């Protein structure tokens, strides 16, 4: 247990005592026992104090050590020690060569860290600390080495042998085996090492860089999936071009490989020139992938490609600096998507995501700063805070510096630090130096956890034609941080006249706890459009009257705030109806009747949005969607999942009934006979049509359920089929069972697609859902060893089905807790990640809170609990 509780602190960072300049690895690949020989060229860190002990420590876990030699002399067993953490021996005086032989078992590696087997292929995942499961090594990102990798394997089962860099040799060996030698000229940390070997199909293309070099682009997939790589390949080429155009960054090798694997803990991994992807984020064709899948593929392919500079050429000094590469790279991929698609729609999506995932994290027991101060298990810190809030921090720098100033800072950063492992402070310093600006206060966003609250109060002086606005900020305490300082943030504000046009607009810089800003030349009392574009990633606390929100929904020149006004209005309406619901003994209709005037005004504003052909369809689709149940539950304490579910559905029904004709017209006008293309415009049209269908079905008229059922049967693309299925999914209509059966048949052998089928059923609001989920655990395609399956069935139940997960009788919690305990022995990283929903107990009523806390205690009582799960469960229970 003491090992589980070991906390690593940022302030304890020490430079490495020894560096590795060059690594030579030889893999003899076998599923059961793989032999790994490593030659490490080691020298002492010259900056290290003299007279300190000359012990060399190399990380290593769960391996069999066969031998260690130093300068070709084999060490006797008394000359080194091995424990659970690694290998120690005494270093010679001069630079030396260590040779280490280890044995590992890829087939038995269910954690999917290090070298493992996915389907029939060998692959690796080394970030953050997987390399130490392959061989003994100083497995920390500030040790950067060049790698030369020899792979020996059976030729018939592993015709494809890949590692980082360039292929420098290959050939046949005895016994039906063959080999390949790869050399990566760029020094890199061990977390960027990758190896793939298997019988994979390859799709090939090429890209000419801005300086005229031809780069071969290859995507490796399981046989039969060759026709599902086009979109990923196209996204890759567009990413390469975009990085040249917008950041002046060119690719630096002649080869770029992507491999799609079925078993993967996260989304994808940016290993140098050998990106490894969860197959879900590569494989797509119109009849297997939805518009949302295409969008995710585009952004994740871009994200991993962009890491070649923001992550690989310049990497992190230590894992506390993770946001150095992740926050920056998320910001880069968000901007790429904004340029490829619709900028406002992209921003809406990114903010909705931030509010759904990061804000709850920041307000709960797992709150931590963008640059954490401590961790037990670093894999637990690949979080929405490090990624998405980290991206907001970079976005604020971009807003404050403007595009040119930002680019000057970026240029200096890459110039100054190319080939180095650096810190978030180094990044900020480059931004400051290039722009002669002081970011001392802005940098508090790196160190201070919690979502700031922001209030505003306006005052119009007609005589002076002045509008004065006073902003007040406050951040609540978070675990381990009681005192919060005022932050520096850009707040974009627009003032609208009665005609709906802007009278004035500017971005102010808030630095004080309370601060006043003045707008001059304001000729009439304006309506305020506050925090346009979500320029500051905060919770705006000030309420605006219903009429102003309706006005903003119809007129704001900032599309983000048009959407935001609608979300605010809907949230307020739902929250007050929920209070009525609780007073009206659970009658959702009566609850809405109590706020009938506001409901009608809201529906009128929704109608205006729906019918406004001046707005793009993707935007209208987003603007018509009510805030989700999870989001609403964050706004209210205690959250009442039944009330939220029923009131939100009752409001959807009212909208569906009131606007039935308009939705019906929208539905039919947006049908398309053209062949499916995944571009943003066509996707927007499909999204608007799907929204209309959703409301029509919500109206309760049976003919619309038939319409959904017909749509499922008639459409030739997954987007329209899923749109139909996801509304049928909650009904008792015979079309539901037919469609699910058809889906299961068609995709029985297609893991990535069948995951949608598992997830749908886990998210159904039908009463039989939990029983069905339990049954599905026994489905031939389901296995606890595949993270996508676990996330689709079990994760989706907890996150996508608040009503059943939080069932009053505790059945949801009990089922879920059993699964986490079971999963911890298989894959601790995924188990830990899935534990977070149980940590939200403080948001619920006492009965539920007690059951959730008991569930966490049951997890903590598990024998041999992993460090991963222990950290999340213990912090969540506190
Ligand atoms: N660096 C990867 C990405 O953001 C994430 C890999 C994280 N994997 C992990 N097991 N922690 O693209
Ligand atoms: Zn990343």
From TrEMBL:
Catalytic activity annotation: Release of an N-terminal amino acid, Xaa-|-Yaa- from a peptide, amide or arylamide. Xaa is preferably Ala, but may be most amino acids including Pro (slow action). When a terminal hydrophobic residue is followed by a prolyl residue, the two may be released as an intact Xaa-Pro dipeptide
Against CDD domains, the record matches this protein to: M1_APN
| Domain Peptidase M1 membrane alanine aminopeptidase: residue ranges | 231-441
What cofactor(s) does the depicted protein rely on? Zn(2+)
- Which EC numbers characterise this protein's activity in its record? 3.4.11.2
Which keywords accompany this UniProt record?
Aminopeptidase, Hydrolase, Metal-binding, Metalloprotease, Protease, Zinc
Do you know which InterPro entries this protein is assigned to? Aminopeptidase_N-like_N, Aminopeptidase_N-like_N_sf, PepN_Ig-like_sf, Peptidase_M1, Peptidase_M1_dom, Peptidase_M1_pepN, Peptidase_M1_pepN_C, Peptidase_M1_pepN_C_sf
Which chain regions cross the lipid bilayer? Answer: none
Where the record annotates domain Peptidase M1 alanyl aminopeptidase Ig-like fold, the positions are 450-542
> Which domain of life does this protein belong to?
Bacteria
Q: Where is the Aminopeptidase N-like N-terminal domain?
A: 51-192
Q: Name one Pfam family in it.
A: Peptidase_M1_N
Peptidase M1 alanyl aminopeptidase C-terminal domain boundaries: 546-877
Annotated GO molecular function terms are: alanyl aminopeptidase activity; metallopeptidase activity; zinc ion binding
* GO BP: any one term: proteolysis
Q: Which family does it belong to?
A: Belongs to the peptidase M1 family.
List the NCBIfam families: pepN_proteo
> What job does this protein perform?
Aminopeptidase N is involved in the degradation of intracellular peptides generated by protein breakdown during normal growth as well as in response to nutrient starvation.
What name goes with this protein? Aminopeptidase N
The scientific name of the source species is Thalassospira lohafexi
């Amino acid at each position: 247990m003491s090992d589980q509780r070991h906390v690593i602190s940022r302030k304890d960072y020490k430079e490495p005592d020894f560096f590795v300049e060059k690594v030579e690895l030889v893999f003899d690949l076998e599923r059961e026992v793989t032999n790994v020989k490593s030659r490490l060229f080691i020298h002492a860190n010259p900056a290290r104090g003299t007279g300190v002990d000359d012990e060399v420590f190399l990380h290593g876990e769960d391996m069999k050590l066969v031998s260690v030699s130093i300068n070709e002399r084999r060490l006797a067993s008394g000359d080194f020690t091995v424990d659970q953490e690694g290998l120690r021996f005494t270093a010679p005086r001069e630079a030396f060569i260590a040779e280490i032989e280890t044995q590992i078992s890829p087939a038995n590696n269910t954690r999917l860290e290090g070298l493992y087997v996915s389907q029939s292929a060998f692959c690796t995942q080394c970030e953050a600390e997987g390399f130490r499961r392959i061989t003994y090594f100083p497995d920390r990102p500030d040790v950067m080495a060049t790698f030369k990798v020899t792979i020996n394997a059976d030729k018939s089962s592993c015709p494809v042998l890949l590692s980082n860099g360039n292929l420098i040799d290959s050939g046949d060996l005895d016994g039906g085996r063959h080999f390949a030698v790869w050399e990566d000229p760029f020094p890199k940390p061990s977390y960027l090492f990758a190896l793939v070997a298997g019988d994979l199909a390859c799709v090939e293309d090429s890209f000419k860089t801005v300086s005229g070099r031809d780069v071969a682009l290859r995507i490796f997939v399981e046989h039969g999936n060759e026709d599902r790589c086009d979109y990923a390949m196209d996204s890759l080429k567009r990413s390469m071009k975009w990085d040249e155009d917008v950041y002046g960054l060119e690719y630096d090798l002649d080869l770029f490989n992507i491999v799609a694997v079925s078993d993967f803990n996260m989304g994808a991994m940016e290993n140098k020139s050998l990106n490894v992807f969860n197959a879900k984020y590569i494989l797509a064709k119109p009849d297997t992938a939805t518009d949302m899948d295409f969008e995710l593929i585009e952004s994740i392919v871009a994200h991993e490609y962009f890491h070649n500079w923001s992550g690989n050429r310049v990497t992190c000094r230590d894992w506390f600096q993770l946001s150095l590469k992740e926050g920056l790279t998320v910001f880069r991929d968000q901007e790429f998507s904004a340029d490829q698609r619709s900028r406002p729609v992209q921003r809406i999506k990114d903010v909705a995501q931030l509010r759904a995932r990061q804000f709850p994290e920041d307000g709960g027991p797992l709150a931590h700063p963008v640059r954490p101060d401590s961790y037990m298990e670093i894999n637990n810190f690949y979080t929405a805070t490090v990624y998405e809030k980290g991206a907001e921090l970079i976005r604020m720098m971009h807003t404050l510096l403007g595009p040119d100033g930002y680019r000057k800072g970026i240029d200096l950063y890459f110039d100054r630090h190319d080939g180095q492992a650096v810190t978030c402070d180094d990044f900020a310093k480059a931004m400051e130096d290039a722009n002669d600006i002081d970011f001392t206060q802005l940098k508090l966003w790196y160190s201070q956890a919690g979502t700031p609250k922001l209030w505003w109060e306006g005052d119009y002086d007609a005589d002076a034609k002045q509008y004065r606005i006073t902003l007040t900020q406050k951040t609540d305490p978070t675990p381990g941080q009681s005192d919060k300082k005022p932050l520096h943030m850009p707040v974009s504000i627009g003032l609208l006249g009665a005609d709906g046009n802007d009278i004035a607009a500017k971005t102010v810089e808030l630095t004080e706890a309370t601060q006043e800003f003045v707008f001059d030349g304001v000729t009439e009392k304006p309506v305020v459009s506050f925090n346009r574009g979500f320029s500051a990633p905060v919770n705006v606390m000030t309420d605006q009257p219903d009429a102003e929100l309706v006005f903003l929904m119809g007129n704001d020149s900032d599309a983000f705030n048009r959407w935001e006004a609608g979300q605010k209005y809907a949230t307020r309406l739902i929250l007050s109806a929920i209070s009525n619901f609780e007073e009206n003994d659970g009658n959702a209709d009566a609850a809405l009747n109590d706020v009938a005037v506001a409901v009608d005004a809201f529906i009128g504003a929704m109608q205006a949005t729906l019918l406004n052909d001046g707005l793009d369809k993707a935007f209208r689709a987003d603007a018509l969607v009510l805030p989700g149940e999870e989001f609403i539950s964050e706004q209210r304490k205690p959250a009442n999942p039944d009330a939220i579910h029923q009131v939100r559905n009752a409001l959807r029904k009212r909208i569906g009934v009131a606007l039935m004709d308009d939705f019906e017209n929208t539905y039919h006008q947006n049908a398309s006979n053209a062949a499916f293309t995944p571009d943003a415009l066509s996707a927007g049209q499909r999204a608007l049509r799907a929204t209309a269908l959703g409301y029509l079905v919500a109206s309760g008229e049976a003919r619309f359920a038939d319409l959904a059922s017909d749509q499922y049967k008639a459409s030739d693309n997954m987007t329209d089929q899923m749109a139909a299925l996801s509304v049928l999914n909650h009904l008792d209509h015979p079309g539901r069972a037919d469609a699910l059966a058809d889906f299961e048949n068609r995709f029985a052998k297609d893991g990535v697609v069948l995951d949608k089928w598992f997830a749908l059923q886990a998210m159904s609001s039908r009463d039989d859902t939990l029983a069905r989920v339990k049954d599905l655990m026994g489905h031939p395609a389901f296995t606890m060893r595949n993270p996508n399956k676990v996330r689709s069935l079990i994760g989706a139940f907890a996150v996508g089905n608040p009503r059943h997960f939080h069932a009053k009788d505790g059945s949801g919690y009990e089922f879920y807790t059993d699964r986490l305990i079971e999963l911890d022995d298989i894959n601790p990283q995924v188990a830990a990640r899935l534990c977070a929903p149980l940590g939200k107990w403080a948001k619920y009523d006492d009965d539920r809170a007690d059951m959730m806390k008991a569930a966490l205690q049951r997890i903590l009582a598990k024998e041999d609990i992993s460090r991963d799960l222990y950290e999340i469960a213990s912090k969540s229970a506190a």
